[in-house]
Amino acid sequence: MRRTTILGLATMVAFACATPRLGDKELPPRPPSLRAAFEQMPAPASARLRILSDNVDAWVARWRLIESAQRSVDVQYFIIEPDAFGMSLLGLLCEKANAGVKVRLMVDSRGTAALSRTWMGADWLQELVRAGAEVRIYNPLEHNVADALASGDLRAVTASNHDKLIIVDKGAAIAGGRNISRDYLSDTRDHPSAFIDMDVFMEGDGAVRALGEAFSSELRGPKTKKVKRDAGTDDRDGLLLAAAAMRLWLQDPAFSDGEVAALDSDEKRDALALVYEGNAVGALDHIPTDKTRELAREVSRQLARLPHLRGALHRPVPPISVEGESVRVLDTHSSWGPTQRNRVNENLLAAVQAAEREVVIQSPYFVLTERGVRALREAAARGVVVTILTNSPTSSDSPITQAAFLKQWPRLLAEISTARLFVVGEKRLMHAKVGVMDGVLSFVGSYNLDPLSAGVNGEVVAAVWSEQFAASQRALIVGKTEEQAPLVFEYTIERGPDGAPVLEGGEPKVRFGPEQHCDPAAIAKVKKLEPLLELLAPII
Questions:
Q1: Does residue 444 sit in the same domain as residue 423?
Q2: Structural domain span for residue 12
Q3: What pTM, to 2 d.p., does this model score?
């Protein structure tokens, strides 16, 4: 999730101004066991599950899933960028709509600004509507300024739907942390700063039905705007050509290492792009418009810079990780929506309270509410070992969240006595949102451990009861924490012989933190925002 400082701060301030302090609420009653915590979650179901930890595998899984659709495709994303991935996805949806498949798409006005804001001149969503799809924009900014002015609540213009879902034929789905763009779906050999992320592929009527209910519950709510078919020129061919270029790239033989090395200049890559543009356009039975041709050219140019994506459809399908295990879908509506459904917060807290041995957490934005701190502190007092993996100022894309994290983390280690805290040190955002408890209960979804997910944005999370699935998820997280510096660092505080935190000026004394490994300019950028954190006091 690419969050600008201004948007992230505005949303947090909006929540701070409109919401009672979350820390004032009591924790939910502690369940008698972790299994009891799981059983009290809604919508029990079974499913066949596959972990999608590799970016290219995650893209190919999406492509194959949508191509397989015979009756319906529901798609919901916070971010769809108008790049080779986003435009070819829209093109694939256009193909399906043209073939009579029921296609429904919802995007968020803030995350998908370049495609959803009419004053920016974008009209590709209208082309998808022209093909017969239903397209909606969640909480469009231009419609809600008046609401914000009238209510004094800035959530009217900042609250987002943060879900990431693809549901096909009501029987298979992909959910998790990835949005649709080059940052989320590229091989790091082509795009070194491509994100670290996690999705889960699901098959099974019950679990997928629950995801569908989460999608449908907000699709036609009062906070969504239906995109209408415009009266302009029919440029659907542009989307179809974007899909055609991507399909050719995915279907052609994978490059050898030598062939990748030979693409060592922009001139060579652009020459290859012209071939793919021509092949895509050649499939039309008429001359394309300039706009159509321009999109095909740009998508082909971008693909030529992703040589390790070519031939990806020939990769073997990753095996199903789990069959027949229990799954619960937890969804939360945006705090500015028509309802106040929040099935994530209380169930996560209850699970932490019920944990008996271990809590492993991976979250890109880690700023705990007071209730979260209390739950982990009480778990540590029971002897539960807590492992946390998050971002540092080097890897994060959210300076305001980092400002809050850097103020909070020494206190967390001081109060949560069993906690170990690891941060990503490379210039690559870790974007996965995963939790594993006692080696048997896993959470995977769109939910960050920060105030935005806790109380502002709509989110969706899959809770899975399975030792096999939990072991796979835990291995990925712990494996990352075991990487050597400068890829990963452990933040620590000084402790006395009795294990108690050493205080300096009333604050825990830092032994190793961001100042010991981050670029001073990155630290300075974060420090500039510290005076603004007083605005967040009501929520953290």
A1: yes
A2: 5-42+324-495+502-535
A3: 0.93
User: Which neighbouring-strand residues pair with 331?
Assistant: 460
Q: Is residue 319 part of a domain?
A: no
Instruction: State the pairing for strand pair 488-493/510-512.
Output: antiparallel
Distance CA 138, CA 157 (A): 11
What confidence score (pLDDT) does residue 120 get? Answer: 53
Please name the residue that has the structure tokens 């605005």.
535
Secondary-structure percent of the chain, ordered helix, strand, coil, rounded to 5: 45, 20, 35
CB 45 within 8 A of CB 210: yes
The answer to whether residue 238 sits within a structural domain is no
Is the separation of the CB atoms in 392 and 520 below 8 Å?
A: no
Sign of CA dihedral 485, 490, 491, 497: negative
CA 170 to CA 357: how far, in whole Å? 37
Q: In CATH, what number is assigned to the domain containing residue 185?
A: 3.30.870.10
Shared-domain flag, residues 303 and 354: no
Tens of pLDDT, residue by residue over 512-528, are: 999 999 999 999 999 88
Residue 142: per-residue pLDDT: 67
The pLDDT of 322-338, averaged and rounded, is 82
Measured CA distances, 213 to 18, 180, 206, 329 (Å) = 28, 22, 11, 10
Strands (E), 25-132: 45-52, 72-77, 102-108
Higher model confidence: residue 321 or residue 479? Answer: 479
Domain co-membership, 333 together with 219:
no
Q: Are 309 and 371 contained in the same domain?
A: no
**Cβ(178)–Cβ(59) below 8 Å:** no
**Residue 23 has what pLDDT?**
52
Provide the pLDDT for residue 318.
82
pLDDT, tens digit, 9 for 90 and up, residues 392-425? 999 999 999 999 999 999 999 999 999 999 999 9
Strands 385-391 and 172-176: unpaired
Q: How far apart are CA 142 and CA 513, in angstroms?
A: 42
